[in-house]
Write a structure and sequence with these properties.
about 375 residues; alpha/beta; globular
Length: about 375
């Protein structure tokens, strides 16, 4: 039977209310999860402010963890009672990208078979109307209904509020270091923007044996947290001064620069921070109308490698258990990253604090 679930529902830009939603029974390849924790990610804030478009009503939230409640008839990898993490990088397993092993670029993420076909009952409804699950998850709710390829197992030993962070922010930051930049011991790394994604990149760079690791932000508290998570140097984020300071700290430029803000000015700054032949990984999500201007001559003359990295180039069924092991070993500091725990009823206030520049990652305890 469908279940009634308390959920945060976005009825329009800036209009968040806690109300009841109806979550359907699983279809053949779907899993219903009772959510226990969901991280507060800046991507959610973009929908709340109207910077990113969506169809209303919408249930935001995507960085979630909980316990399997029910499974569809064809699901074999999960069973009721399993602890799981959700991930927006749902994949079909059959498209060209998936066959290449690039499941994070799945071409069917927003259509069947990972989504329900036209004419099927909605996975989630509010007031009798179909509701949009945020980024395919809708995690600020007591229950979610997702395709089985949107889940990974969470080890029993890891606290659920830490496990939730693995599904997006940590996966993106650490995945950029491990999967895409492939940082090696002794290489220098500069991370611009020390929110959840940037801090995870700093931490992963330390695990990889990089050095120096330079954290850049405009907030002193964020830089202090970055130091605790592995940064060896910190810089205040002045757009003009940062590249020169990085070149001085690295004897000519960093091997790797990671931009985790999604702003054209800091993306260009990241490119200016790398040495000749270095790599700039652009991770932050910019607005759809934003453009990036770079020096054509310098890009070629200095053999700069510039790459966009979506969600840490992850294959999350493999990566999330590995990251969980690093956390259980005490090397991935999820305990430091999760700086605030708030109830679902305080979600709107949590968004307000995020917009004003809160440090670390807030986790909504459902």
């Amino acid at each position: 039977m469908p279940v009634t679930s308390r959920a945060a529902v976005l009825t329009g830009p800036g209009e968040v209310a806690i109300t009841e939603a109806t979550v359907d029974d699983p279809a053949a390849h779907e899993v219903r999860v009772r959510i226990e924790a969901c991280g507060l990610c800046r991507s959610d804030l973009h929908y709340v402010t109207g910077e990113l478009r969506t169809e209303f009503p919408m249930v935001p939230g995507h960085e979630a963890a909980g316990v399997v409640d029910a499974v569809g008839s064809s699901v074999t990898g999960f069973a009721p009672g399993d602890r799981v993490v959700t991930c927006m990088s749902v994949y079909c397993g059959t498209c060209d990208a998936c066959r290449r092993g690039e499941t994070w670029l799945c071409q069917n993420r927003e259509r069947p078979p990972t989504q329900r076909p036209d004419g099927a009952p909605p996975r989630v409804a509010v007031g009798g109307r179909p509701a949009t699950p945020g980024l395919g998850i809708g995690g600020f709710a007591e229950h979610v209904l997702v395709h089985e390829h949107a889940l990974a197992i969470l080890p029993d030993q890891l606290p659920v509020e830490h496990g939730a962070l693995l599904g997006c922010g940590v996966l993106t930051g650490a995945g950029t270091v491990f999967n895409s930049a492939r940082v090696r011991p002794g290489e220098s790394v500069v991370v611009i923007g020390c929110g959840g994604v940037g801090l995870s990149a700093v931490n992963a760079a330390a695990i990889a044996g990089a050095g120096p690791i330079i954290a850049v932000d405009v907030d002193d508290a964020a830089l202090e947290l970055a130091t605790a998570m592995g940064a060896t140097e910190t810089l205040r984020g002045d757009v003009e001064a940062v590249p020169r300071a990085v070149r001085l700290l690295t004897d000519g430029g960093a091997d790797h620069a990671i931009e985790a803000l999604g702003r054209p000015a800091t993306m260009a700054q990241a490119v200016d921070c790398i040495r000749p032949g270095g790599t700039a990984s652009l991770v932050g999500i910019a607005g759809p109308a934003e453009t990036l201007e770079l020096s054509a001559l310098a890009t070629v003359w200095f053999n700069r490698r510039i790459q966009g990295v979506l969600m840490g180039a992850n294959h999350f069924p493999r990566d999330i258990p590995r990251l969980a092991d690093l956390a259980l070993d005490g090397r991935l500091r999820l305990d430091l990253l999760a700086t605030e725990r708030i109830p679902l009823d305080d979600l709107a206030a949590g968004f307000d604090r995020m917009a004003s520049g809160s440090t670390g990652r807030a986790v909504v305890m459902i």
